């Protein structure tokens, strides 16, 4: 269970992410995740947030070690942008897209949080035995910002390269 202090902090992160606060439901559902609108429902769906949003101490997997704000960005800037996706929920490509999109587009994340999301995207592919050839944006994040970001990428609001944070 998330306590009031944790929920208060998470709500601030939702606002920093410029996400729709109405979509977030705390201590609801079975685990943290995006729930697509039901058939015929034109709404944006819901995001359940539970205690599993908190990073696990000593976790190695990017999914478990990333910040709560990165997870919220994955749900909102990743999944919730595709409420009527044809991809199967929880399939690797749906998860890959959610983490990649959040890393590339969510406002006001740190460079480290974007790196964690990009690593998570790659990990999801690896776990499904897919090999992903990192594109220029992924290479930029994996190089710790030493390579140049691709010119086709528009850095989101609040983006700062490492060293300028
Ligand atoms: Zn997901």
Span between N and C termini?
32 Å
Helix run count = 6
> In order across it, which strands form the biggest sheet?
1-3-2
**Average pLDDT level:** 94
- As a whole number of angstroms, the C-alpha radius of gyration is 15 Å
Short description:
With 165 residues, the chain is mostly helical. The protein has 6 helices and 3 strands. The N and C termini lie far apart (32 Å).
Description of the molecule:
With 165 residues, the protein is mainly alpha-helical. Helix content is 40%, strand content 6%. Strands 1-3-2 form a three-stranded mixed β-sheet, covered by helices on one side. It binds zinc ion (ZN). Zinc ion binds at residues 74, 79, 95, 98.
Give the helix/strand layout.
Blueprint (H helix, E strand, L loop, with lengths): L3 H13 L7 E3 L6 E3 L10 E4 L12 H4 L2 H11 L13 H14 L5 H17 L8 H7 L23
Parallel strand pairs: 1-3
Antiparallel strand pairs: 2-3
The structure holds zinc ion.
Zinc ion binds next to helix 4.
Using brief descriptors, characterize the structure shown.
single chain; 165 residues; 6% strand; binds zinc ion; mainly alpha; 40% helix; globular; 3 strands
